[in-house]
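Q: What structure does this chain adopt?
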Amino acid sequence: MRKIAELKDIPDGGSKLVMVEDTPVALFNIKGEVHAWDNRCPHRGASLADGNISDSIIQCKFHLWEFDVETACAVANPELKVKTFSVTVEEGEIFIDD
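A:
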């Protein structure tokens, strides 16, 4: 496991972009649960951390592609999936398996 952030740095309903070696990782705090995704939208590589965030959808800002928070799959085509990382939160620190 690798520590990548602190929970206090991601407001509820917000995001934070971190770099893990050469990979941009978007962290989303959705109702107290942290999700870690590859930050690149599979459509054109736009930043998902800069997108619109709701309780169930992350929407890419550029072409409005929507991804289900729980599955990381595109709403319009569940065959398209964003790479995700396993997350552990311990004592306010966020870790991922990479």
